[in-house]
Amino acid sequence: MAELAHSATFPLYQSSRVGYYWQSVTKMPATSPSIGYITFAFTRARRPRVDLYIDTGDRVRNKHIFDELYAHRNEIDATFGAPLAWERIDDKHASRVAYYYDTPTVIDATPEELTALRQWGVDVILRLHQALEQPTREAIATLDSTPPAKHSPAPTHVAIEIQGVSDLEERPFATVENRDTTP
User: Fold this and answer.
1) SS3 27
2) Angle at 52 between CA 42 and CA 120, to 5 degrees
3) Is 43 left (phi over 0), alpha (psi -120 to 50) or beta?
4) How far apart are CA 131 and CA 38, in angstroms?
5) Neighbouring-strand partners of residue 41
6) Nearest CA to 143 among 53, 52, 32?
7) pTM, two decimal places
8) Where would a tag sit more exposed on the chain, N or C end, judged by fewer CB atoms within 10 A?
9) CB–CB of 53/37 below 8 Å?
10) What is the pLDDT along the chain (183 residues), one digit of tens a residue?
11) What is the C-alpha separation between 128 and 151, in angstroms, rounded?
12) Cβ distance 2 to 14 under 8 Å?
């Protein structure tokens, strides 16, 4: 984050989460209302990524925002300077627009590998922010015509805090029946 702080022209998010496999960098857009965060994450597939994680708290709105951004993907990809991974993730609550590191890398990589990854991450975060800041504002403006869902489906999986990359897995939430005990 220190390296990014020297180059960023946007406010950085000071996360209190320590020990997770991801780090929120800045909210998008930088001013309210926000639709999510730009994050840096290590993945189970050993493919670190920088992404716009779209999560307004409402599944319908998340998918609407993703679709609005996706409709402008060619311009966004061109501004970013490379094709992005457009991941609507229909079976999940959130969506993401991501760019993946080409070299398999884990949290406990060598110092040289982590230095290269950090330099890549700073560059990608800056480019992704530049490519998505205005389009996210425009997507938010379209939300007035899309009312929030009355009941967004609950997520079915949760990422587990890890000590090392190999400990990362997704586990289903426990299912609890709603039983009315009123006589």
Assistant:
1) strand
2) 50
3) beta
4) 12
5) 22, 49
6) 32
7) 0.69
8) C
9) yes
10) 555 555 666 655 555 454 466 677 788 887 768 888 898 888 777 889 999 999 999 999 999 999 999 999 999 999 999 999 999 999 999 999 999 999 888 777 788 988 898 899 989 999 999 999 999 999 988 886 655 555 444 333 333 333 333 333 333 333 333 333 334
11) 31
12) no
Tokens of 138: 């425009």
Distance CA 123, CA 129 (A): 10
Question: How many Å from the N-terminal Cα to the C-terminal Cα in the chain?
Answer: 57
C-alpha span between 73 and 79 (Å, rounded): 10
Structure-token match 């950085």, residue found: 12
| Residues β-bridged to residue 170 | 159
Per-residue pLDDT tens over the stretch 14-53: 554 544 666 777 888 877 688 888 988 887 778 899 999 9
179 vs 137: CA distance, rounded Å: 42
Q: Determine contact, residues 84/97, Cβ cutoff 8 Å.
A: yes
pLDDT tens by residue, 18-29: 446 667 778 888
